[in-house]
Design a protein that fits this description.
The protein is an alpha/beta fold. The chain has 2 domains: 144 residues, Rossmann fold (3-Layer(aba) Sandwich), CATH 3.40.50; 177 residues, Dihydrodipicolinate Reductase, domain 2. The protein is 32% helix and 25% strand. It is built from 10 helices and 17 strands. A 9-stranded mixed sheet has the order 14-13-12-11-7-10-9-8-17. It has a 6-stranded parallel sheet with strand order 3-2-1-4-5-6, with helices on both faces. Strands 15-16 form a two-stranded antiparallel sheet. The longest helix has 20 residues. The structure holds nicotinamide-adenine-dinucleotide.
Length: 366
Amino acid sequence: MDEHKKLRIGIVGTGGIAHAHMAPYRTYGDVEIVGACDSVPGKARAFLDKYGLTDTPAFEDVRMMISHVAMDGASVCTYNTTHADCAIALLEAGVHVLCEKPMSFTLPEAADMVRASRKAGKILTIGFQPRFDYMRKKVDAIIESGALGKVYYVQSGGGRRRGIPGGTFVNKEKAGFGCLGDIGCYSIDECLHAIHYPKPLTVSAIATDYFGRNPKYWPEADSFDVDDFSVALVRMEGDVTFLFKQSWAMHVDTLGDTLWLGTEGAIKVCNAVDEHNKPSRVMFYTDVNGSHIDAAVLPTLPFDPAMGEMPVDMWDAKMRSFVDAVIANGPAPVPCEEILYNQAICDGIYRSSQLGKEVEIVIPNL
Ligand SMILES: NC(=O)c1ccc[n+]([C@@H]2O[C@H](COP(=O)([O-])OP(=O)(O)OC[C@H]3O[C@@H](n4cnc5c(N)ncnc54)[C@H](O)[C@@H]3O)[C@@H](O)[C@H]2O)c1
């Protein structure tokens, strides 16, 4: 990028989450929004107008936008089943891409996205803002230090008691996945990024829809056609076992704690919230000369002598890291190659659930 020029950014898909992309972009002095596009007629125009960008062109088709507007980077904020088509069109046109999560619906689509990024030599980063959460970074750093020894078991927890999101999230044609693609992909990333995403080998899984299909819990039960709960046992390279659970709705407060068990120590993220709705607590466990040590990992924020503790906005960090990566021409803050394993696990979970048995996880050749 010319250092005197602002970064030219386009936004593809102008529904709910596009506003959360636009808002930080508008605060960056080195970014200019040069276009927006949505397949619903008039939607991109109304979106741009809302931000006072009345002279910025709006389109109904990503390829039309590509042919009319020069872009350095773009946010893909469409629903899941059109991520691949839009991202690949942009990458092939030489545009760096920040694609919302999940990376895609199908595994072949995800592989094509990685290939397009490599071929074009352009960034494809996936919108996992929890990567920038300061407590999560602490967990990653503790594991990276080797304090846990060899990590042999990882378990996701959490889940929502009542949290079916509605809209395009519960429409198979648009979302592809249900809970698995909406919040399951975050859990997989939280658990496996911390241990550098070992290669997944096999999975035995079940995905169900008991709450979404019940009018007592979901008003549009008749049209609900995605998963709302899934559980999976994943065998991974390096003798690592991953127990995955995720839920949009259930009759309990949490599916448990998030765990990393190692030969020298363990980390537990307590997912149950207390009556004051306090955020999750992180514990580190180890053994010193036969004594059991249980230590709380304190949420100490980055400290500035003049300002004191500095709050960390993980959403802003996600957006800014993309902008900075485009300026530097890479690397991608959340590389698509890494998230391919996340997609391969989701693909395996669905196949295993449909077949009712353990299946091999397919890792596409790139
Ligand atoms: N990172 C997060 O915290 C977070 C939060 C919410 C949603 N998301 C993700 O963002 C994506 C969008 O979610 P949303 O809530 O904004 O959905 P939405 O349905 O409100 O918006 C999606 C928009 O994309 C448009 N669209 C679909 N296909 C298109 C295409 N080929 N070309 C142009 N426009 C197209 C639709 O018309 C719609 O306006 C989803 O993948 C979702 O998982 C991420």
